[in-house]
Amino acid sequence: MMRLKYFEVYRTAAVILISLAIAFIIISLVSSQPVETIRIFLFEPLSTLSRMGNVVEMAIPLMFTGLSVSLLFKTNMFNLGAEGIFYISGIVAAVLAIHLSMNGIMHPIVAIGAGSIVGALLSAIPGYLKAKWNANELVTSLMFNSIFFGIGLYLLNYHLRDAKAFSNVSYKFAETAQLAKILPGTRLHTGLIIVLVLIVAAHYFMYHTKWGYELRMTGANRDFAGYSGMKTAKVIILVHLIAGFIAGMGGSVEVLGMYNRFQWTALPGYGLDGALVAMLAKNNPLSVIGAALFLAYIRIGADLMARLSDVPSEMISIIQAVIILLISAEQFLKFWKNRMLLKEAKLHE
What we know:
Mean pLDDT: 91
Subcellular location: Cell membrane
CATH topology of the largest domain: ABC transporter involved in vitamin B12 uptake, BtuC
Number of domains: 2
Membrane topology: Multi-pass membrane protein
Main location: membrane
Number of helices: 14
Low-confidence stretches: none
Order of helices and strands: HHHHHHHHHHHHHH
Structural class: mainly alpha
GO molecular function: transmembrane transporter activity
CATH class of the largest domain: Mainly Alpha
CATH architecture of the largest domain: Orthogonal Bundle
Keywords: Cell membrane, Membrane, Sugar transport, Transmembrane, Transmembrane helix, Transport
Strand content: under 5%
Largest sheet: none
């Protein structure tokens, strides 16, 4: 018999299967060659080393933001500020990559470290507002996203822009600042190693330290945690600092690993995607890896489908929408959970 503790795993798998099934039905209705289109969507991302590399490349920033958001969600903080922090930290890393002269080992470390620290400090603002005055973290984080984007775009346009380039991009980064590639034939960079180490560290922090326990208890019931002697205000500020540090590192790594100039003239969207990754991962740091790879895989599949068939890549939006709808629906498969509870109760009678 399926054990109750695995219910959420099966529930998430059911959500994914239902989402894909709906997408396949729509493809069958609109495509002149539905079988070939579905084949492209499912298997073309694995057809070459370069395309497999594209999947992992896209998953790296999703892992960073997914991990950042999952820590906040675990503390019951519905904060979506990773979007703006990802952007502004990328700007900070770009400034140091352009204007700082260092050797090839220290240069990216300093640039990524600076972006991470800036991300932590900026993320602490809505955290402090929440802890001190119980300000709604969703509202303040979304507000700060617009502020950080405006500041970053100003710096790009008036201080970093290369007038000789034919687009709105920064001056070129110093070669010493760019992250090394780790797999020939792809653009995979050392950011993959960084994020995997960070995920393992976050898992240890959350489930094997006193601070992680306080984080989880504050998320489960802040009042109870406070009555138990936990300083919940400090916990809220701490988790915002950590989440901002991770998101800031993600923005810095993405800029230095994938580009030789800063070229984001709009928010890249990875912060909001991080919320979807966190939901799929059920706020478990280790599960973020699989969730990010899945989301990256279907996006690369949708892009290839748009280029090689007659179905547009916007199809992926339908899958994402259904996933969000079903994951967030507490009643979805609740009857199954209740049945499992009854069975386990009878076994212990």
